[in-house]
Design goal:
With about 240 residues, the chain is mainly alpha-helical. It has three domains: about 100 residues, no CATH class; about 35 residues; about 80 residues, no CATH class. Helices cover about 65% and strands about 10% of the residues. The strands form two sheets. A three-stranded antiparallel β-sheet has the order 1-5-4. The protein has a two-stranded antiparallel ribbon with strand order 2-3. Helix 1 packs across helix 2, helix 4 runs antiparallel to helix 5 and helix 7 packs across helix 8.
């Protein structure tokens, strides 16, 4: 994954705080008994990549392991997780580390020709535009994933449900339709809600609309409901 600005790794942070890399990862990813920083940010719809970006590193044996690239803002978050002297020392170390990185960049920049400096500045502007577009795309994707089906789609889905349930009941003139149609319609709607994790058939995510249509077209009542339908339709009309 791409590195956003200047970062240090969680491996470096573990060394700075004289703790294990596992403990640093636990602060980010959480554990069974508590949320991690990344989960809290995600739940509150904040851009995790502004602070932490998943990456990998190779240990002494050459094995590739997971780590995170941490921005200065991310270090600010983690510093709050270390109390007392350990937190103070970590803050001093990472602030110095980022300051050193900035100095290195500035020294290298000053030694370049005017033309090269202009090219780098142009490239930085392009990169800034790209990052802005990527963030906008992420926001659009988030909005699309949370939008529910519109009125027209609701009506199409309703007709599909009516058609499918009526088919299983044996038609609108059947005994089952007259006697237990409400029960079977309710079963179908509840199955849809459970499958798509929605509190209402009309609140299915818009991006799942096509899947919902296919689901309804293949829906069947449960075994017991099928038996009740058969019994109803086998009864002689009086």
């Amino acid at each position: 994954m791409k590195q956003i600005g200047q970062t240090i790794t969680t491996v470096e942070i573990a060394e700075m705080t004289e703790t294990t890399h596992f403990d640093v990862l636990k602060k980010l990813e959480g554990a069974k008994d508590r949320k991690g920083i990344i989960k809290v940010l995600t739940d509150n719809q904040m851009s995790v990549s502004d602070y932490f970006t998943e990456s990998t590193y190779k240990d002494a044996s050459g094995k590739e392991n997971k780590c995170y690239l941490v921005t200065k803002l991310g270090c600010d978050f983690l510093a709050n997780k270390f109390t007392g002297e350990k937190g103070i020392l970590f803050t001093a170390k990472y602030v110095k580390r980022f300051h050193e990185m900035e100095d290195t960049i500035l020294r290298g920049f000053d030694g370049l020709s005017t033309e090269m400096q202009a090219l780098i500045m142009h490239d930085k502007k392009i990169q800034s535009v790209i990052e802005h577009i990527e963030k906008s795309d992420n926001r659009i994707e988030h909005l699309e994933s949370n939008m529910v089906i519109d009125y027209g789609q609701q009506q199409v889905l309703k007709e599909k449900v009516n058609s499918r349930v009526t088919y299983w009941l044996g038609g609108k003139n059947s005994n089952a339709y007259n006697d237990i149609s409400k029960v079977v319609f309710s079963e179908c709607n509840k199955d849809i809600q459970r499958y798509f994790n929605a509190n209402s058939r009309n609140n299915i995510p818009r991006i799942k609309f096509d899947d919902a249509i296919k689901y309804v077209e293949n829906w069947e009542p449960c075994h017991n409901t099928k038996l009740v339908i058969t019994d109803c339709n086998n009864q002689l009309n009086i």
